Amino acid sequence: MPLLQVIIASTRPGRQGPAIAEWIAQRARDHGGFEVEVVDLKQVDLPNYDEAQHPASGVYEHEHTKAWAASVARADAYLFVIPEYNHFMPAALVNAFTFVNREWAYKPAGIVSYGGVSAGLRAAVTTKEALVALKVVPLVEAVSLPFFTQFIDDDGAVVPNEIMQQSSTVMLNELVRWEAALRSLRADS
Ligand SMILES: Cc1cc2nc3c(=O)[nH]c(=O)nc-3n(C[C@H](O)[C@H](O)[C@H](O)COP(=O)(O)O)c2cc1C
């Protein structure tokens, strides 16, 4: 079964990202199209980009880069869980994108964004621009959480509404289709 990585983009103390990631990871497991792995950028703990060679060379000096490259390469599809910081994606995600290059290529990505009135959509748009440069195919179908704290209960668990349930199913169905369609490109490269 193909591997889907749910990547948590927020790293600050007190962050809400893991709760949202756990919800969408469980949706993906229940969906059944993928083996699911949660990747937490806080635990990955990359320093600011510190490689001498262009990442497209695949020449990595540092152990943290080699470990991150192996993690990114392992996945067949991605699902990014993204808050909006100053109308942009979190710096930790930009940094994680920068470290490696070919390992991302020819895989589809869904986005779960969250924020205030914007539902994190500006962060999602900036993320899509970055993904295209890495030859990742960002999906149109997405899950967008406006005023997202309304969906988190007193125990810190996500309580989804009908729109979240439906949009996540549509996004996961599309991820399955794109993952299969892009396999031949991955095999050729
Ligand atoms: C540095 C910073 C900038 C933020 N900028 C935005 C923003 O531009 N738009 C928005 O909707 N929410 C913004 N927020 C509020 C976040 O949506 C909210 O804090 C959310 O919990 C962040 O996700 P996290 O808890 O996983 O870090 C910002 C929060 C922080 C800490």
Short recap of the structure:
The protein is α/β, with parallel strands linked by helices and 189 residues long. The protein is built from six helices and six strands, in the order βαβααβαβαββα.
What binds here, in terms of ligands, is: flavin mononucleotide
Query: Tell me, what is the CATH class?
Result: Alpha Beta
Which regions have little confidence, pLDDT < 50, spanning 5+ residues?
none
Determine the structural class based on helices, strands and strand pairing: alpha/beta
CATH topology: Rossmann fold
Radius of gyration: 16 Å
| Oligomeric form | single chain
Strand residue percentage: 15-25%
Our measurement of the CA-to-CA distance between the termini, rounded to an integer number of angstroms, reads 21 Å
Order of helices and strands: EHEHHEHEHEEH
CATH superfamily: Flavodoxin domain
Number of domains as seen in the coordinates = 1
Q: Judging from the principal axes of the Cα atoms, what is the shape?
A: globular
Structural account:
The chain has 189 residues and is of the alpha/beta class. It is built from six helices and six strands; from the N terminus they run βαβααβαβαββα. Helix 1 (17-31) crosses helix 6 (162-188). The radius of gyration is 16 Å and the shape is globular. The protein has helices at 17-31, 41-44, 63-74, 91-99, 121-133, 162-188; strands at residues 3-8, 35-40, 77-83, 108-114, 137-138, 143-145. Strand 1 (3-8), helix 1 and strand 2 form a beta-alpha-beta unit. It binds flavin mononucleotide (FMN). Flavin mononucleotide binds at residues 10, 12, 15-17, 83-87, 115-116, 118.
